[in-house]
Amino acid sequence: MTILGTDTAVADASPAPAAVRSPRRIGRRLLANAKVRIGLTIVAVFWLLAIVGAWLAPHDPNELSPDTLQGPSAGHWLGTTTTGQDIASQLLAGTRPVMLVAFGSGAIATVIAMVVGVAGGFLSGWAEEVLSMLTNIFLVLPAVPLMIIVASQLPQVGSWAVALVIALTGWAWGARILRAQTLSLRARDFVQAARANGESTRRIVFFEIIPNLATVIATSLVMTTLFALLAVVTLSFIGVTSLSDWNWGTVLYWAQTQQALQRGLWWWFIPPGLCIAILGMALALINFGIDEYANPRLRIGSVGAARLRRQGIRPRVGFTPVRRTAPARDPLDERRAG
Amino acid sequence: MPFLLRRLAFYAVTAWAALTINFVIPRLMPGDPVQALIARFQATGQVSPEQTESLRILFGLDQDVSLWTQYWQYWAQVLGGDLGLSFTYFPTPVSEVIRQTLPWTLILVGLATLISFVIGTSAGMVAGWRRGSLIDGLLPLATFFAAVPYFWLGLIAIALFAVTFPVFPTSGGYDVGLTPGWSADFVGSAVYHGMLPALTIVVSSLAPWILGMRNMMVTVASEDYVTVAHAKGLPARRVMMSYAARNAILPSVSTLALSLGFVVGGSLVTEMVFNYPGIGLALFQSINAQDYPLMQAIFLILTLAVLAANLVADVAFVLLDPRIRRAT
Amino acid sequence: MVTDPILEIRDLRVDYGYGADAVTALSGVSLTLHRGEILGIAGESGCGKSTLAYAATRLLPPPGLVTGGAVLLHGAPGTPPVDLLSLPDAALRSRRWRDVAVVFQGALSSLNPVHRIRTQLTDAIAAHDPSSTRRSRLDRARELLAMVKLPEDRLSAYPHQLSGGMRQRVMIAMALALEPQVLILDEPTTALDVVVQKQIVEQLLELRERLGFSVVFITHDVSLLISYADRIAVMYAGEVVEVADAESIYREPRHPYTHALLNSFPPLQGPRRVVTGIGGAPPDLAALPPGCRFHPRCPYRMPACAERHPGLVASPYPGDDGRTVACLLHGTDDTTAVPAALAPRTRSRSA
Ligand SMILES: Nc1ncnc2c1ncn2[C@@H]1O[C@H](COP(=O)(O)OP(=O)(O)OP(=O)(O)O)[C@@H](O)[C@H]1O
Ligand SMILES: [Mg+2]
């Protein structure tokens, strides 16, 4: 759950957009990145499963059957539990709540982060101090225990309650990077110029600042969604959320309580974890793509380096590569004639 | 030293906020679960009147007293070290449960985090310095481990290294036959039991360090002073360590502090999976037993621990960055 | 003043970028620095002056790429020169700073903010002379600071505790730590106010008298070069367009760009002239005009200028010994084509 740990790439090597870029252009540039495309495809597949998964499921996830503890087969794609429930159906039924909570609380948290972060970057005096303090407090408070004490004291812990609890504990990271970026934008020429022209603060925020925050907002959204994904399955796994709602964490909860590990029932605990890991990886990939877009210095990855090496070029600081090619001689160039 | 003073003030406010959250949440929630529990234990005559009173103050069961008075009573009681009774380990006081479990967590999570930081930062340093090297290729793997929940990695680790290939014990913090103490047997057994959980925490928390340090190395490598260091003809190692990495690590140190909250959260669940006798397991049991006093105390104590670790990171930061010493 | 060369740059070519989208920042620059001289390099912003300084020392950061040429460093008379661009890493590293030291543009960011001045002065000495003692290195650092007239207590200061001028002096002191033969200064004074600028340049001249190193002085401020440099090379869009001694450049520029450049600065001394800017903008390196790169902005352009690229050749006029210029106006049979401003002054033109 620590993928959120470092925000250095965003906060310190932030891009220097000369002026507003249209969201559509940013979108097109991002889609040119293979990592973003792969990540988005995976997310789309999971959304599809979230929508049609319940109908696709071959069994009722709660249905008990005499076929207990069976390995994967044609009838039960991912085997069955100690009570003969179909694990594949449980996973399919659990996709929708997971997606809704992860993306829902990711979105809510990002909205909170935008309000707090942009306002914090724009206000001054005590209001700014308070917002910044609030952000920092929520950053250091350990999120999991906080979510547990809030969620476990709620009388009913349905999907929306969980989404809200996660959003309320997970917005601070996004607020921090948004605030940093707003502060740096505020000092830029084009914002100063807009101010000098007497444009209203509201106009500046909505037309100059927010469009230029697009990549940071996207980063915040993606990473908070990842945080929410890990948080919701964690909460379900430790049994804080309602067990009547299926979700990947709940499947793991039952696997753990029924000693699936000790009994070697790998089909019970491997697939749910893989679902989480693949979705999480997809979100991380999208974030890599955004990072590379925002900070082009990161772009020469291993692939580019390998191609350059074949040409005999090793780009590095301190020792400029030298590759003497026969200079393309201009026939009219008199330089070497005399 | 204004920087540290400012940070101390911030920690004071955060600690206050954590305590206040503990005060507010039970009073906001509609149900009265604690009331029900008290009634149950009172019926069997196991709870003394003072203990009931302390729980009333902590959870706001005295409706006739003003909120303001409740707040003061609450503070007075918490500062006196009375965090109520644990229902899970009835009738042990919560503070006693914490005293027994906290050291396990501090050592396991503290060491694992430190190891992860050192390994991850070093790997990130090399990956950022030599783009396209082997470690750069390792990055996707590390990201995969960061994108899976700690507890699942823990489950896999147990399935692999404790069940299929029984190299490590499946659960617990030490051999049940031993009595806790500073004997060689006990320490050896504790280290042995701690190995697999620690490994899980290290592996899952590695990626952010690698990534953050790598990105900072790439950024710092194009700073003028690094070029100057090359121009001076310094040995490659010195340029990397004392010019690039020395500066690139600064943001990592400041995020080390911030990400501790996340690491602690994930590690707690790892403890649950491994049945490790730390605070995470206590938290898990308190959830099942609806042991609200214990849950809240754990939140509080973990916040304080994270704040203390933050302070250490701040001091390190001040020592590493001369500019901060002057900044106000 | 013709002495033997110490640093020869031959046909240096540099690209930014590695693939199809690479732009050529230097297209065949040749220059010679003689022993003991100050060679000034002038040109508008973006013409490739810094690129030249970095590439000549192989310090150009990615995406820089040297695509051709040589940088010959001459040692003691009789020994063959070495090509800095062909040296293996270790050999290049040991030559850096000991033979060629560089003060880069923007000393503000050239010092590492987390190390004391002392550390940054002495670590170069330690790297090149491992047998030196800590004491001797410290003594040397103190001596160096004294050389640039900084109090010795600044040794234990951090860069952020120094003013811009002080930092620039520290950089100069650092560059002289190993008594290099060649000192390359890239706009050493640009960010400073005029008074400090003058102080630093004069201190440098004094040190050169004392220590006898040769200097490549890069600046966009030609007037500064005219007062201090021995010879001046003028660059335009990645090429050298004219080289001559400072006096001649000032009195009789041969290239229209040199002429325009001179007129765009008020002279520090000597007769005042009207200051005019240079019309137009420097060309985009990715889309250079055909023929002479300056012709779109040149007031004296001829039809041929758009077609033929002029090479840097010896100036054809008697008395112009050692001058080179890359302009089609000169050296044609039709001497009337040469505008008065660029023609030799003292000799009468035969019709
Ligand atoms: N990383 C880069 N990628 C692409 N082009 C670059 C890069 N760095 C520099 N250039 C181009 O190379 C040219 C030469 O730049 P250089 O810094 O050498 O100019 P300069 O003469 O030193 O200018 P100044 O007087 O402003 O210092 C410029 O036109 C610049 O646009
Ligand atoms: Mg320059």
Automatic annotation (TrEMBL), chain A:
The keyword Lyase does not apply. It is found in: Cell membrane. Signal peptide: none annotated. One of its GO terms (molecular function) is dipeptide transmembrane transporter activity. Residues 99-287 form the ABC transmembrane type-1 domain. The chain crosses the membrane at residues 38-57, 98-123, 130-151, 157-178, 213-238, 265-290. InterPro entries: BP-dependent_transpt_permease (IPR050366), MetI-like (IPR000515), MetI-like_sf (IPR035906), OppC_N (IPR025966). SUPFAM superfamilies: MetI-like. The keyword Transmembrane helix applies. Pfam families: BPD_transp_1, OppC_N. Keywords: Cell membrane, Membrane, Transmembrane, Transmembrane helix, Transport. One of its GO terms (cellular component) is plasma membrane. It is a multi-pass membrane protein. Its main location: membrane. PANTHER family: D,D-DIPEPTIDE TRANSPORT SYSTEM PERMEASE PROTEIN DDPC-RELATED, OLIGOPEPTIDE TRANSPORT SYSTEM PERMEASE PROTEIN APPC. Belongs to the binding-protein-dependent transport system permease family. This is Peptide ABC transporter permease. The lineage of its organism: Bacteria, Bacillati, Actinomycetota, Actinomycetes, Jiangellales.
TrEMBL record, chain B:
The chain crosses the membrane at residues 7-25, 104-129, 141-168, 190-211, 248-274, 294-320. Belongs to the binding-protein-dependent transport system permease family. Residues 102-313 form the ABC transmembrane type-1 domain. Pfam families: BPD_transp_1 (PF00528). Gene3D superfamilies: MetI-like. Signal peptide: none annotated. GO terms for cellular component: plasma membrane. Keywords: Membrane, Transmembrane, Transmembrane helix, Transport. This is Peptide ABC transporter permease. It is a multi-pass membrane protein. GO terms for biological process: transmembrane transport. CDD domains: TM_PBP2 (cd06261). It comes from the Bacteria. It is found in: Cell membrane; Membrane. The keyword Cell membrane does not apply. InterPro entries: MetI-like (IPR000515), MetI-like_sf (IPR035906).
TrEMBL record, chain C:
One of its GO terms (biological process) is peptide transport. PROSITE patterns: ABC_TRANSPORTER_1 (PS00211), ABC_TRANSPORTER_2 (PS50893). The lineage of its organism: Bacteria, Bacillati, Actinomycetota, Actinomycetes, Jiangellales. The keyword Membrane applies. Residues 7-262 form the ABC transporter domain. One of its GO terms (molecular function) is ATP binding. It is found in: Cell membrane. It is a peripheral membrane protein. GO terms for cellular component: plasma membrane. The keyword Cell membrane applies. SMART domains: AAA. Belongs to the ABC transporter superfamily. This is Dipeptide/oligopeptide/nickel ABC transporter ATP-binding protein.
